[in-house]
Design brief:
Elements lengths: L2 H22 L4 H6 L1 H11 L14 E4 L5 H11 L38 H16 L5 E6 L6 H12 L5 E7 L2 E2 L2 E2 H5 L4 H7 L3 E6 L3 H13 L5 E6 L22 H19 L2
Parallel strand pairs: 1-2, 2-3, 3-7, 6-7
Antiparallel strand pairs: 4-5
Helix pairs in contact: 1-3, 1-4, 1-10, 3-4, 3-9, 5-6
Protein name: Transketolase
InterPro entries: THDP-binding, Transketolase_CS, Transketolase_N
Keywords: Metal-binding, Thiamine pyrophosphate, Transferase
């Protein structure tokens, strides 16, 4: 995909995430929207995955450590072709395979069940170590929230990753600055995030998480790093492209009502129209 196609796909993924949360009447739109560009680049450009064979042995692995942003993840998997886009409207419904957090047993394309914050990166580190021990060349990617990195388990995993020189591991931090209780700097500041990962022997890259040129360059750079895991610190906007959700902590875990949903979709339609004119 070229950059414009990636931008259009990210907009479709944002629409899918908002639609899923609206139909569920619960869920986490804010962080799904902030991570949409990262999701898009990973699944449409970066990762070796196969919708016809989701469990193929040599596939790259992805772990959504901040599992509550499943709506954005599911919208990405659906648009990538792992399951029908129409199924997004069943999010969190009784009997649906699209649960509130990712479930590797029932959702095609999901490599790890996650949701308990701090644990996903540990699973990703284990996968990366496994690849090293077995001599496989697949790569492992994990997406963390910036509030999530207040969890001690994140740094235990980071210490092991640095110690084991896991250059097949890429940790992405969605740094949108907000968590359920407000500004991360006020709740329990993790800053400076980059210097912390550097101290754990990571190669660190700071980017604008909505700029596909910077995203592409970061993942390219990560592939060239030897003897260290990479941490990509992506500065993002919570609720990106939905006017009333942007930079509002209250939209961390809330569903839009009918009127709000209409406004959100109109906002995203405008973004799509602007992209079509580029």
């Amino acid at each position: 995909m070229n950059k414009l196609e990636l931008m259009k796909m990210a907009n479709e993924i944002r629409k899918g995430a908002v639609t899923a949360v609206y139909h569920a009447k619960s869920g986490h739109p804010g962080g799904s929207l902030s991570a949409a560009d990262i999701y898009t680049y990973l699944f449409f450009e970066e990762m070796n995955v196969d919708t016809a064979d989701p469990k193929k042995a040599d596939r790259d692995r992805f772990v959504l450590s901040k599992g509550h942003t499943a709506p954005g993840y599911y919208a990405t998997l659906a648009n990538r072709g792992f399951f029908p886009v129409e199924d997004l409207t069943t999010l969190r419904h009784v009997g649906s395979y699209l649960q509130g957090h990712p479930d590797m047993k029932h959702i095609p394309g999901v490599d790890m069940s996650s949701g308990s914050l701090g644990q996903g990166i540990s699973a990703a580190v284990g996968m990366a170590i496994g690849a090293k021990l077995s001599g496989d060349d697949y790569r492992v990617y994990t997406l963390l929230g910036d509030g999530e990195i207040q969890e001690g388990q994140v740094w235990e995993a980071a210490m092991l990753a640095g110690h084991r020189k896991l250059d097949n591991l890429v940790v992405i931090v969605d740094n949108n600055g907000l968590q359920i209780d407000g500004n991360i700097a006020d709740v329990n500041s993790p800053y400076p995030i980059d210097k912390k990962f550097d101290a754990f022997n990571f190669h660190v890259i700071n980017i604008d998480g909505h700029n596909f040129d910077e995203i592409a360059a970061a993942f390219k750079e990560a592939k060239e790093v030897k003897g260290k895991p990479t941490a990509i610190i992506a500065k993002t906007i919570k609720g990106k492209d939905v006017s009333f959700m942007e930079n509002e902590a209250s939209w961390h875990g809330a569903a839009p009502n009918e009127e709000q949903y209409a406004v959100a979709m109109a906002d995203l339609e405008k973004v799509g129209e602007a992209l079509c004119q580029m």
